[in-house]
Write a structure and sequence with these properties.
This protein is 2% helix and 49% strand. By secondary structure, it is mainly beta. The protein starts with 6 loop residues before the first helix and ends in a 14-residue tail after the last strand. The model is unreliable at 1-21 and 186-192 (pLDDT under 50).
């Protein structure tokens, strides 16, 4: 199926030529997938938690992105130290990448539920392009490889995360080195080469009690990459009886002239004190909307917590 797509179209979605787009996968339910964005989150709270997420973007468009994310964090209670593991898998057209990060975080406790954590991560990314599954616009183009190519890229990142029982704020750069992503012999000296760009994330959110049954939880995520439009996720959720979540996101970004990138609906259900499931649907607002049926996302969150313990506001973060 992928052979029906031209190499030019697929490369316009990924940074294999001149970099003009975000490289990392985006997640509508990022507020429940923070470890993929900020290593300082590994020491949040006192419970070991694990999450798995699947995202199918632009369903119906051949070669569209699909992503899976697995995250685990283990805070060591009483030691203000946490470790984590983040595994992300992304497929776009002929490209396939695996990113594995080992994470260490330390927390400073200022009392009354106020905490500041700092995190570091070491990352290895395996990046593969299946050139044998593509067709070129110009047959016999000698500038493109004729066999599948794989490259493994080391990197490291850092983050800072401050949280209280009522709000959080964080800043991170999961990968700091601008590593070569191209398959050209002259690497970064070639004007058509590509590199792993620095992605910077700013996140914040809060929770407000409306009454005994309802809570309001607004949040904001800003994603910045050099030479790419700034993406902003504006999200608001209503929480019913600490069990049911329903919310919407307006994502600012996309192509020039569009009113935004997407409008997203998010639904969450806290099954018990340990398990939470979530579903999201993105309605595309850019020109791509004519070629797809939207984006779907499913997340499962599990924490090693006693079923008899009480839910507290930091669990919402």
């Amino acid at each position: 199926m992928i052979k029906k797509l031209s190499i030019l179209f697929m490369f316009s979605l990924l940074p294999l030529l001149s970099l003009v787009a975000q490289q990392d996968a985006q997640y509508t339910q990022w507020m429940f997938n923070k470890l993929s964005l900020n290593p300082a989150y590994a020491v949040h709270g006192d419970d070991a938690c694990f999450s798995a997420l699947h995202r199918s973007q632009w369903v119906g468009l051949e070669g569209a992105p699909t992503s899976q994310s697995f995250n685990g964090r283990i805070p060591f209670k009483g030691r203000n130290v946490g470790i984590g593991l983040s595994v992300n898998h992304d497929v776009v057209g002929p490209t396939n990448s695996w990113t594995v990060s080992g994470i260490y975080a330390y927390r400073f406790n200022f009392g009354n539920g106020r905490n500041l954590s700092l995190g570091l991560q070491a990352t290895a990314r395996s990046y593969r392009v299946n050139f044998t599954e593509t067709t070129t616009i110009t047959p016999g183009d000698g500038h493109l490889p004729t066999t599948d190519q794989t490259r493994t890229i080391p990197n490291f990142g850092a983050g800072i995360y401050y949280y209280t029982p009522k709000y959080f704020i964080g800043l991170s750069a999961p990968r700091i080195l601008e590593s070569d992503l191209s398959f050209f012999d002259d690497g970064l000296n070639n004007s058509d080469s590509s590199r792993e760009e620095i992605h910077t994330y700013f996140m914040t959110g809060a929770v407000f009690d409306l009454n005994k049954a309802l809570k309001l939880k607004p949040s904001l995520l800003v994603k910045y990459v050099k030479d790419a439009p700034i993406d902003i996720d504006l999200h608001t959720s209503i929480i019913f009886y600490d069990k049911f979540w329903t919310g919407a996101t307006y994502r600012i970004g996309g192509f020039d002239g569009s009113i935004g990138e997407s409008i997203d609906l998010v639904f969450q259900f806290q099954i018990n004190n340990q398990i939470r499931i979530g579903f999201a649907y993105d309605h595309t607002l850019t020109k791509v909307k004519t070629t797809n049926d939207g984006t779907f996302e499913l997340v499962l969150d599990y924490c090693l917590k006693s079923d008899n313990s009480n839910l507290t506001n930091p669990r919402f973060f």
